């Protein structure tokens, strides 16, 4: 799907290699100096960096620069087409959840060329599981996961791959989801050092993925309160 939504004022597109010939695309929301912390934002399945068009500016208000990334496993959101997926498809590259790992790693490397401060990774649905998998390896400063789960057993990974990979995390971790999804990530949360872990389960139904923070979601304020409290010490 082609992008029909205009790029917001003050936001620029960034294009960078994902390491296998694919060109990855991201939106840079950088109103603060390079010394400010940078949050790298990854979308859910079928989506694009457009998932963060209303979220990134609020994170900017909290003192963070942000990089909203198109991963190759996705399509479009809010009128924003997934350009990384288009690049991968043009080259005949596979676009499974696992294949998106190349884009996530490349994006974090790009964030470190843009920012000299802390780097935080944030994922939605399948990418929220991947940020938990990659957090220790990438030596980031914090991880936020919106609706993680063991989504990869049909892609050659074990049924406990995310939980096993998350065990070495020694940085602050935030996990949340819709209320009825909490049981899905409970074993993952149990693998993480409780001294590092913050979880939020809404009293109401809530919503899947990062889009629970969209202005259209009725539960957004409770989520934003929890997210803001978690992020505040990182600024």
Question: What is the fold's blueprint, element by element?
Answer:
Blueprint: E1 11-17, E2 23-29, E3 38-42, H1 55-61, E4 65-69, E5 76-77, E6 80-81, H2 83-90, H3 101-114, E7 119-124, H4 126-138, E8 142-146, H5 161-166, E9 173-176, H6 182-190, E10 197-200, H7 220-231
Parallel strand pairs: 3-4, 3-7, 7-8, 8-9, 9-10
Antiparallel strand pairs: 1-2, 2-4, 5-6
Helix pairs in contact: 3-4
Care to describe what's here?
- By secondary structure, this protein is an alpha/beta fold.
- It has one domain (11-234): Alpha/Beta hydrolase fold, catalytic domain (Rossmann fold).
- 29% of the residues lie in helices and 20% in strands.
- It has seven helices and ten strands.
- The protein has helices at 55-61, 83-90, 101-114, 126-138, 161-166, 182-190, 220-231; strands at 11-17, 23-29, 38-42, 65-69, 76-77, 80-81, 119-124, 142-146, 173-176, 197-200.
- The longest helix is centred in the middle third of the chain and has 14 residues, at 101-114.
- The protein starts with 10 loop residues before the first strand and ends with a helix.
């Amino acid at each position: 799907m082609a992008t029909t939504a205009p790029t917001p004022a003050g936001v620029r597109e960034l294009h960078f290699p994902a390491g296998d010939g694919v060109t990855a695309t991201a939106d840079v929301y950088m109103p603060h100096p390079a010394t400010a912390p940078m949050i790298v934002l990854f979308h859910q399945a079928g989506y694009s960096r457009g998932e963060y068009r209303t979220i990134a500016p609020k994170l900017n208000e909290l003192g963070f620069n942000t990089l909203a990334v198109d991963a190759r496993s996705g399509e479009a959101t809010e009128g924003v087409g997934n350009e990384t997926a288009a690049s991968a498809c043009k080259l005949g590259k596979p676009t499974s959840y696992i294949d998106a790992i190349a884009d996530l790693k490349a994006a974090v490397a790009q964030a470190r060329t843009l920012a000299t401060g802390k780097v935080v990774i944030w994922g939605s649905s399948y990418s929220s599981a991947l940020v938990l998998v990659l957090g220790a390896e990438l030596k980031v400063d914090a991880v936020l996961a919106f609706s993680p789960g063991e989504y990869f057993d049909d892609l050659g990974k074990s049924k406990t791959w995310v939980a096993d990979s998350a065990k070495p995390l020694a940085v602050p971790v935030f996990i949340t989801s819709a209320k009825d999804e909490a049981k899905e990530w409970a074993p993952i949360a149990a693998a993480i050092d409780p001294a590092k872990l913050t979880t939020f389960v809404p009293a109401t139904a809530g919503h899947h993925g990062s889009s629970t923070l969209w202005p259209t979601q009725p539960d957004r304020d409770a989520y934003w309160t929890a997210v803001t409290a978690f992020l505040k010490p990182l600024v």
